[in-house]
Amino acid sequence: MSVVASNGIDSLPDSLISQILLWLPTKDSVKTSVLSSRWRNLWLDVPGLELDLTFLTPSSSKSAAINNLLDRFMEPRLQKLKIKYDDSNNVSRFGSSKLIATVINRGVEHLDVESFSILPRDFMPLDIYKSKTLVSLKLAYVGMSSPGYVVSLPCLKIMQLENIKCRKRDPLIIENLISGCPVLEDLNLCWDGGYNQLPVLRVRSQSLKRFCVRSSPLSISRSKEYAVEIDAPRLEYINFRDKNTRIVVAKNMSSLFMIDIDAKFNVEKMKKGTISDFLDRVSGVRHMIISQPTLEVLLPYFKHGLASKFRNLSRLEATFCNVLLQRFPDFLESFPKLKHLTLYLVYMKELEPENLELTNVPTCLLSTLECVEIKEVITRNNQRTVLKQWHKKTIWMEAVRYILENSLLLKKLILCFSPKTIKVSKMSKSLATFTKRSPKCEVFIRWTSLSKST
Which of 11, 80, 372, 397 could form a disulfide with 110 if both were Cys (CB 3.0 to 4.6 A apart)? Predict the structure, then answer.
Protein backbone atom coordinates (compact mmCIF):
# COMPACT_ATOMS: atom_id res chain seq x y z
CA MET A 1 0.00 0.00 0.00
CA SER A 2 1.37 3.43 -0.92
CA VAL A 3 1.96 6.15 1.65
CA VAL A 4 -0.71 8.45 0.22
CA ALA A 5 -3.27 5.65 0.02
CA SER A 6 -2.76 4.68 3.65
CA ASN A 7 -3.49 8.26 4.67
CA GLY A 8 -6.68 8.41 2.62
CA ILE A 9 -5.44 11.34 0.52
CA ASP A 10 -5.23 9.25 -2.62
CA SER A 11 -8.99 8.78 -2.55
CA LEU A 12 -9.58 12.49 -3.03
CA PRO A 13 -10.39 13.83 -6.50
CA ASP A 14 -7.60 15.54 -8.47
CA SER A 15 -9.32 18.92 -8.27
CA LEU A 16 -9.34 18.85 -4.45
CA ILE A 17 -5.73 17.68 -4.27
CA SER A 18 -4.74 20.59 -6.51
CA GLN A 19 -6.40 23.02 -4.12
CA ILE A 20 -4.54 21.45 -1.19
CA LEU A 21 -1.21 21.72 -3.02
CA LEU A 22 -2.01 25.35 -3.75
CA TRP A 23 -1.14 26.15 -0.12
CA LEU A 24 2.36 24.72 -0.53
CA PRO A 25 5.36 26.45 -2.14
CA THR A 26 5.85 25.18 -5.68
CA LYS A 27 9.19 23.56 -4.75
CA ASP A 28 7.34 21.46 -2.13
CA SER A 29 4.39 20.53 -4.32
CA VAL A 30 6.85 19.27 -6.94
CA LYS A 31 8.18 16.77 -4.38
CA THR A 32 4.79 15.02 -4.29
CA SER A 33 5.45 13.73 -7.82
CA VAL A 34 7.44 10.81 -6.37
CA LEU A 35 4.55 9.51 -4.25
CA SER A 36 2.96 7.42 -7.01
CA SER A 37 2.35 7.37 -10.74
CA ARG A 38 -0.94 9.19 -10.21
CA TRP A 39 0.83 12.04 -8.41
CA ARG A 40 3.57 12.41 -11.03
CA ASN A 41 1.94 15.34 -12.81
CA LEU A 42 -0.62 16.55 -10.28
CA TRP A 43 1.61 19.47 -9.23
CA LEU A 44 1.37 20.81 -12.78
CA ASP A 45 -2.40 21.23 -12.32
CA VAL A 46 -2.05 23.38 -9.20
CA PRO A 47 -3.57 26.82 -9.95
CA GLY A 48 -0.71 28.56 -8.15
CA LEU A 49 2.96 29.21 -8.77
CA GLU A 50 5.75 30.35 -6.47
CA LEU A 51 9.06 31.39 -8.04
CA ASP A 52 12.24 32.55 -6.30
CA LEU A 53 14.63 34.02 -8.87
CA THR A 54 16.66 35.95 -6.30
CA PHE A 55 19.95 34.13 -6.63
CA LEU A 56 19.46 32.76 -10.14
CA THR A 57 21.96 34.13 -12.63
CA PRO A 58 20.28 34.73 -16.01
CA SER A 59 21.34 32.55 -18.92
CA SER A 60 19.72 31.45 -22.16
CA SER A 61 19.12 27.89 -20.96
CA LYS A 62 17.71 28.94 -17.58
CA SER A 63 15.53 31.58 -19.18
CA ALA A 64 14.12 29.03 -21.65
CA ALA A 65 13.42 26.52 -18.86
CA ILE A 66 11.61 29.12 -16.76
CA ASN A 67 9.61 30.35 -19.73
CA ASN A 68 8.54 26.78 -20.54
CA LEU A 69 7.41 26.30 -16.94
CA LEU A 70 5.48 29.57 -17.04
CA ASP A 71 3.79 28.63 -20.30
CA ARG A 72 2.69 25.31 -18.79
CA PHE A 73 1.14 27.01 -15.75
CA MET A 74 -0.43 29.75 -17.83
CA GLU A 75 -2.57 27.34 -19.88
CA PRO A 76 -5.30 27.22 -17.20
CA ARG A 77 -6.20 30.28 -15.16
CA LEU A 78 -3.62 30.95 -12.49
CA GLN A 79 -5.28 31.79 -9.16
CA LYS A 80 -2.12 32.60 -7.23
CA LEU A 81 1.33 33.90 -8.16
CA LYS A 82 4.20 34.60 -5.76
CA ILE A 83 7.46 35.76 -7.26
CA LYS A 84 10.74 36.97 -5.74
CA TYR A 85 13.59 38.40 -7.75
CA ASP A 86 16.60 40.68 -7.64
CA ASP A 87 15.92 43.69 -9.84
CA SER A 88 19.63 44.44 -10.11
CA ASN A 89 20.35 40.97 -11.46
CA ASN A 90 19.05 41.56 -14.99
CA VAL A 91 15.70 40.08 -14.06
CA SER A 92 14.16 41.24 -17.34
CA ARG A 93 15.83 38.21 -18.96
CA PHE A 94 13.23 36.11 -17.12
CA GLY A 95 10.35 38.34 -18.24
CA SER A 96 8.95 39.01 -14.75
CA SER A 97 7.09 42.18 -15.77
CA LYS A 98 5.53 40.44 -18.75
CA LEU A 99 4.56 37.51 -16.55
CA ILE A 100 2.88 39.78 -14.00
CA ALA A 101 0.95 41.63 -16.70
CA THR A 102 -0.12 38.34 -18.29
CA VAL A 103 -1.42 36.72 -15.10
CA ILE A 104 -3.31 39.92 -14.22
CA ASN A 105 -5.03 39.98 -17.58
CA ARG A 106 -5.85 36.27 -17.29
CA GLY A 107 -7.63 36.75 -13.97
CA VAL A 108 -5.16 36.01 -11.14
CA GLU A 109 -6.74 36.42 -7.69
CA HIS A 110 -3.71 36.50 -5.37
CA LEU A 111 -0.52 38.31 -6.41
CA ASP A 112 2.63 38.57 -4.27
CA VAL A 113 5.67 40.32 -5.78
CA GLU A 114 8.91 41.00 -3.91
CA SER A 115 12.13 42.50 -5.22
CA PHE A 116 15.42 42.49 -3.34
CA SER A 117 16.71 45.66 -4.97
CA ILE A 118 16.79 48.79 -2.79
CA LEU A 119 16.34 51.08 -5.80
CA PRO A 120 14.16 49.21 -8.30
CA ARG A 121 14.59 49.67 -12.03
CA ASP A 122 11.67 47.44 -12.89
CA PHE A 123 8.27 49.11 -12.33
CA MET A 124 4.99 47.24 -12.03
CA PRO A 125 2.97 47.01 -15.26
CA LEU A 126 0.05 49.44 -15.43
CA ASP A 127 -2.30 46.45 -15.81
CA ILE A 128 -2.11 46.14 -12.03
CA TYR A 129 -4.41 49.18 -11.64
CA LYS A 130 -7.34 47.69 -13.59
CA SER A 131 -7.59 44.04 -12.53
CA LYS A 132 -11.17 42.82 -12.20
CA THR A 133 -10.21 39.64 -10.31
CA LEU A 134 -7.46 40.52 -7.79
CA VAL A 135 -8.53 39.71 -4.22
CA SER A 136 -5.17 40.14 -2.46
CA LEU A 137 -2.14 42.16 -3.53
CA LYS A 138 1.26 42.17 -1.81
CA LEU A 139 4.09 44.27 -3.21
CA ALA A 140 7.52 44.77 -1.63
CA TYR A 141 10.48 46.86 -2.82
CA VAL A 142 9.02 47.43 -6.28
CA GLY A 143 8.41 50.56 -8.28
CA MET A 144 5.00 51.99 -9.21
CA SER A 145 4.06 54.60 -11.79
CA SER A 146 0.98 56.77 -12.06
CA PRO A 147 -1.47 55.03 -14.41
CA GLY A 148 -2.88 58.23 -15.89
CA TYR A 149 -6.43 56.91 -15.46
CA VAL A 150 -8.84 56.09 -12.63
CA VAL A 151 -7.75 53.03 -10.63
CA SER A 152 -10.35 50.24 -10.56
CA LEU A 153 -9.81 47.12 -8.46
CA PRO A 154 -13.41 46.04 -7.71
CA CYS A 155 -12.57 42.76 -5.91
CA LEU A 156 -9.44 43.68 -3.93
CA LYS A 157 -9.92 43.04 -0.19
CA ILE A 158 -6.34 42.70 1.11
CA MET A 159 -3.42 44.97 0.19
CA GLN A 160 0.09 45.01 1.62
CA LEU A 161 2.62 47.55 0.35
CA GLU A 162 6.19 47.50 1.66
CA ASN A 163 8.77 50.11 0.69
CA ILE A 164 7.08 51.00 -2.58
CA LYS A 165 9.06 53.45 -4.73
CA CYS A 166 6.77 55.85 -6.51
CA ARG A 167 8.00 57.19 -9.84
CA LYS A 168 8.80 60.90 -9.64
CA ARG A 169 7.94 60.57 -5.94
CA ASP A 170 4.31 61.16 -6.77
CA PRO A 171 2.39 61.10 -3.43
CA LEU A 172 -0.93 60.50 -5.15
CA ILE A 173 -0.03 57.07 -6.52
CA ILE A 174 -0.68 55.29 -3.20
CA GLU A 175 -3.67 57.49 -2.36
CA ASN A 176 -5.35 56.78 -5.71
CA LEU A 177 -4.55 53.07 -5.40
CA ILE A 178 -6.36 52.90 -2.05
CA SER A 179 -9.31 54.96 -3.27
CA GLY A 180 -9.74 52.64 -6.26
CA CYS A 181 -10.54 49.62 -4.10
CA PRO A 182 -14.27 49.80 -3.18
CA VAL A 183 -14.26 46.57 -1.10
CA LEU A 184 -10.83 46.89 0.54
CA GLU A 185 -10.91 45.54 4.11
CA ASP A 186 -7.28 45.05 5.17
CA LEU A 187 -4.49 47.56 4.40
CA ASN A 188 -0.91 47.10 5.60
CA LEU A 189 1.75 49.71 4.77
CA CYS A 190 5.46 49.69 5.50
CA TRP A 191 6.58 53.14 4.51
CA ASP A 192 9.95 54.52 3.45
CA GLY A 193 9.32 58.22 3.92
CA GLY A 194 12.91 59.13 3.08
CA TYR A 195 12.56 58.09 -0.56
CA ASN A 196 8.99 59.06 -1.30
CA GLN A 197 8.95 62.24 0.81
CA LEU A 198 5.21 61.99 1.27
CA PRO A 199 3.92 64.99 3.29
CA VAL A 200 0.50 63.45 3.94
CA LEU A 201 -0.65 59.85 3.65
CA ARG A 202 -4.41 59.93 3.07
CA VAL A 203 -6.40 56.78 3.63
CA ARG A 204 -9.98 57.21 2.47
CA SER A 205 -12.13 54.11 2.28
CA GLN A 206 -15.76 53.28 2.96
CA SER A 207 -15.00 49.56 3.38
CA LEU A 208 -11.68 49.40 5.28
CA LYS A 209 -11.74 47.41 8.55
CA ARG A 210 -8.04 46.97 9.42
CA PHE A 211 -5.25 49.48 8.87
CA CYS A 212 -1.60 48.92 9.84
CA VAL A 213 1.29 51.26 9.12
CA ARG A 214 4.90 50.96 10.20
CA SER A 215 8.13 52.69 9.27
CA SER A 216 10.74 50.85 7.24
CA PRO A 217 13.93 49.90 9.12
CA LEU A 218 15.83 51.20 6.09
CA SER A 219 14.43 54.70 6.44
CA ILE A 220 15.11 55.54 10.09
CA SER A 221 18.13 57.77 9.47
CA ARG A 222 16.90 59.67 6.44
CA SER A 223 13.13 59.74 6.61
CA LYS A 224 11.13 62.91 6.93
CA GLU A 225 8.11 63.21 9.16
CA TYR A 226 4.72 62.98 7.55
CA ALA A 227 1.08 63.13 8.55
CA VAL A 228 -1.52 60.36 8.32
CA GLU A 229 -5.11 61.26 7.59
CA ILE A 230 -7.74 58.54 8.00
CA ASP A 231 -11.33 58.70 6.85
CA ALA A 232 -12.76 55.18 7.18
CA PRO A 233 -16.16 54.88 8.91
CA ARG A 234 -16.03 51.04 9.08
CA LEU A 235 -12.51 50.84 10.49
CA GLU A 236 -12.31 48.43 13.45
CA TYR A 237 -8.56 48.11 14.05
CA ILE A 238 -5.63 50.54 13.74
CA ASN A 239 -1.96 49.65 14.28
CA PHE A 240 0.71 52.40 14.14
CA ARG A 241 4.35 51.38 14.45
CA ASP A 242 5.83 54.39 12.73
CA LYS A 243 8.47 56.60 14.35
CA ASN A 244 8.16 59.13 11.53
CA THR A 245 4.48 59.92 11.95
CA ARG A 246 4.20 63.57 12.89
CA ILE A 247 0.45 63.68 13.24
CA VAL A 248 -2.57 61.42 12.89
CA VAL A 249 -5.88 62.95 11.85
CA ALA A 250 -8.80 60.59 12.35
CA LYS A 251 -12.33 61.04 11.02
CA ASN A 252 -15.43 58.84 11.22
CA MET A 253 -14.08 56.43 13.85
CA SER A 254 -17.45 55.24 15.16
CA SER A 255 -16.71 51.55 14.42
CA LEU A 256 -13.21 51.48 15.92
CA PHE A 257 -12.75 48.58 18.36
CA MET A 258 -8.98 48.43 18.93
CA ILE A 259 -5.98 50.72 18.51
CA ASP A 260 -2.31 49.77 18.88
CA ILE A 261 -0.10 52.85 18.71
CA ASP A 262 3.64 53.42 18.89
CA ALA A 263 4.37 56.82 17.33
CA LYS A 264 6.37 59.88 18.30
CA PHE A 265 4.06 62.81 17.68
CA ASN A 266 5.89 66.07 17.02
CA VAL A 267 3.74 68.34 19.18
CA GLU A 268 5.76 71.46 18.31
CA LYS A 269 4.76 71.25 14.65
CA MET A 270 1.08 70.56 15.30
CA LYS A 271 -1.78 72.99 15.40
CA LYS A 272 -3.27 73.58 18.82
CA GLY A 273 -5.90 71.00 19.69
CA THR A 274 -4.71 68.36 17.19
CA ILE A 275 -3.77 65.77 19.83
CA SER A 276 -6.97 66.40 21.81
CA ASP A 277 -9.03 66.01 18.64
CA PHE A 278 -7.29 62.72 17.80
CA LEU A 279 -7.94 61.32 21.28
CA ASP A 280 -11.57 62.41 21.11
CA ARG A 281 -11.99 60.63 17.74
CA VAL A 282 -10.66 57.31 19.05
CA SER A 283 -12.19 57.52 22.54
CA GLY A 284 -14.84 54.93 21.65
CA VAL A 285 -12.36 52.02 21.42
CA ARG A 286 -12.66 49.00 23.71
CA HIS A 287 -9.06 47.80 23.56
CA MET A 288 -5.95 50.02 23.45
CA ILE A 289 -2.23 49.23 23.32
CA ILE A 290 0.08 52.19 23.85
CA SER A 291 3.88 52.37 23.86
CA GLN A 292 6.09 54.36 26.21
CA PRO A 293 7.15 57.02 23.63
CA THR A 294 3.50 57.65 22.75
CA LEU A 295 2.50 57.65 26.41
CA GLU A 296 5.07 60.35 27.21
CA VAL A 297 3.41 62.64 24.67
CA LEU A 298 -0.20 61.85 25.60
CA LEU A 299 0.02 61.75 29.40
CA PRO A 300 -0.33 65.55 29.87
CA TYR A 301 -3.56 65.47 27.88
CA PHE A 302 -4.99 62.75 30.10
CA LYS A 303 -3.76 64.41 33.30
CA HIS A 304 -5.16 67.87 32.57
CA GLY A 305 -8.48 66.71 31.11
CA LEU A 306 -7.67 67.83 27.58
CA ALA A 307 -9.19 64.70 26.07
CA SER A 308 -12.49 62.89 26.41
CA LYS A 309 -12.71 59.89 28.73
CA PHE A 310 -12.56 56.46 27.10
CA ARG A 311 -15.88 55.26 28.51
CA ASN A 312 -16.08 52.06 26.42
CA LEU A 313 -12.52 50.87 27.03
CA SER A 314 -12.36 47.59 28.95
CA ARG A 315 -8.85 46.36 28.06
CA LEU A 316 -5.66 48.44 28.25
CA GLU A 317 -2.00 47.56 27.61
CA ALA A 318 0.53 50.30 28.39
CA THR A 319 4.30 50.54 28.78
CA PHE A 320 5.67 52.64 31.64
CA CYS A 321 9.17 53.53 32.73
CA ASN A 322 9.60 54.22 36.44
CA VAL A 323 9.32 58.00 36.22
CA LEU A 324 6.01 57.76 34.35
CA LEU A 325 4.52 55.59 37.08
CA GLN A 326 4.09 58.73 39.19
CA ARG A 327 1.30 59.76 36.81
CA PHE A 328 -0.21 56.28 36.64
CA PRO A 329 -3.41 57.15 38.63
CA ASP A 330 -4.09 60.24 36.49
CA PHE A 331 -3.77 58.11 33.39
CA LEU A 332 -6.22 55.47 34.64
CA GLU A 333 -8.79 58.13 35.49
CA SER A 334 -9.53 58.40 31.75
CA PHE A 335 -10.77 54.78 31.65
CA PRO A 336 -13.71 54.55 34.10
CA LYS A 337 -14.88 51.09 32.88
CA LEU A 338 -11.50 49.37 32.62
CA LYS A 339 -11.61 45.64 33.45
CA HIS A 340 -8.29 44.22 32.27
CA LEU A 341 -4.97 46.07 32.61
CA THR A 342 -1.60 44.89 31.33
CA LEU A 343 1.27 47.02 32.58
CA TYR A 344 4.70 46.64 30.95
CA LEU A 345 7.52 48.04 33.11
CA VAL A 346 10.77 49.25 31.57
CA TYR A 347 13.77 50.35 33.59
CA MET A 348 15.55 53.47 32.30
CA LYS A 349 18.56 54.46 34.37
CA GLU A 350 18.47 58.12 33.33
CA LEU A 351 14.80 58.43 34.38
CA GLU A 352 14.91 56.94 37.86
CA PRO A 353 12.80 58.74 40.51
CA GLU A 354 13.77 58.81 44.16
CA ASN A 355 10.50 57.27 45.28
CA LEU A 356 6.96 56.55 44.18
CA GLU A 357 4.02 58.28 45.82
CA LEU A 358 0.63 57.21 44.51
CA THR A 359 -2.30 58.77 46.33
CA ASN A 360 -5.23 59.38 43.97
CA VAL A 361 -7.48 56.40 43.33
CA PRO A 362 -9.15 56.37 39.87
CA THR A 363 -12.74 55.26 39.33
CA CYS A 364 -11.89 51.96 37.63
CA LEU A 365 -9.99 50.66 40.69
CA LEU A 366 -13.06 51.22 42.82
CA SER A 367 -15.71 49.89 40.47
CA THR A 368 -14.63 47.77 37.46
CA LEU A 369 -11.00 46.53 37.42
CA GLU A 370 -10.90 42.71 37.65
CA CYS A 371 -7.54 41.59 36.30
CA VAL A 372 -4.07 43.17 36.30
CA GLU A 373 -0.92 41.79 34.67
CA ILE A 374 2.40 43.48 35.48
CA LYS A 375 5.25 42.40 33.21
CA GLU A 376 8.89 43.37 33.37
CA VAL A 377 10.48 44.12 30.00
CA ILE A 378 14.11 43.02 30.22
CA THR A 379 16.55 45.35 28.46
CA ARG A 380 20.28 45.01 27.95
CA ASN A 381 20.89 47.71 30.52
CA ASN A 382 18.53 45.91 32.86
CA GLN A 383 20.39 42.64 32.50
CA ARG A 384 23.75 44.19 33.39
CA THR A 385 22.66 46.15 36.44
CA VAL A 386 19.77 44.24 37.94
CA LEU A 387 21.63 43.19 41.08
CA LYS A 388 22.90 46.72 41.70
CA GLN A 389 19.74 48.65 40.90
CA TRP A 390 17.54 47.16 43.61
CA HIS A 391 15.89 50.55 44.13
CA LYS A 392 13.89 50.20 40.93
CA LYS A 393 12.42 46.97 42.27
CA THR A 394 11.23 48.81 45.35
CA ILE A 395 9.39 51.27 43.13
CA TRP A 396 7.78 48.44 41.17
CA MET A 397 6.64 46.78 44.37
CA GLU A 398 5.10 50.07 45.49
CA ALA A 399 3.05 50.00 42.29
CA VAL A 400 1.96 46.46 43.13
CA ARG A 401 1.02 47.56 46.65
CA TYR A 402 -0.99 50.48 45.30
CA ILE A 403 -3.05 48.22 43.03
CA LEU A 404 -3.69 45.59 45.70
CA GLU A 405 -4.66 48.03 48.40
CA ASN A 406 -7.02 50.13 46.25
CA SER A 407 -8.78 47.70 43.90
CA LEU A 408 -12.17 46.73 45.30
CA LEU A 409 -13.18 44.10 42.70
CA LEU A 410 -9.80 42.71 41.66
CA LYS A 411 -9.95 38.96 41.00
CA LYS A 412 -6.49 38.25 39.63
CA LEU A 413 -3.07 39.89 39.86
CA ILE A 414 -0.36 38.31 37.69
CA LEU A 415 3.26 39.38 38.27
CA CYS A 416 5.72 38.45 35.51
CA PHE A 417 9.29 39.36 36.45
CA SER A 418 12.75 38.01 35.74
CA PRO A 419 14.18 35.51 38.24
CA LYS A 420 16.75 38.11 39.34
CA THR A 421 14.06 40.69 39.99
CA ILE A 422 12.04 38.23 42.05
CA LYS A 423 15.15 37.40 44.08
CA VAL A 424 16.35 40.98 44.62
CA SER A 425 12.94 42.35 45.56
CA LYS A 426 12.09 39.39 47.81
CA MET A 427 8.73 39.46 46.14
CA SER A 428 6.95 36.71 48.02
CA LYS A 429 7.86 38.20 51.40
CA SER A 430 6.84 41.67 50.28
CA LEU A 431 3.45 40.47 49.02
CA ALA A 432 2.74 38.89 52.40
CA THR A 433 2.90 42.34 54.01
CA PHE A 434 0.45 43.97 51.58
CA THR A 435 -3.25 44.37 52.33
CA LYS A 436 -5.61 43.06 49.66
CA ARG A 437 -8.65 45.33 49.34
CA SER A 438 -10.45 42.62 47.38
CA PRO A 439 -10.75 39.37 49.39
CA LYS A 440 -11.30 37.33 46.20
CA CYS A 441 -8.04 38.44 44.58
CA GLU A 442 -5.55 35.72 43.66
CA VAL A 443 -1.88 36.61 43.13
CA PHE A 444 0.35 34.67 40.72
CA ILE A 445 4.12 35.08 40.28
CA ARG A 446 5.63 33.99 36.96
CA TRP A 447 8.96 34.33 35.19
CA THR A 448 8.99 36.70 32.24
CA SER A 449 10.55 36.18 28.82
CA LEU A 450 9.86 39.66 27.43
CA SER A 451 12.96 41.47 26.21
CA LYS A 452 13.99 44.38 24.03
CA SER A 453 17.19 46.24 23.24
CA THR A 454 17.77 49.82 24.31
Answer: 80
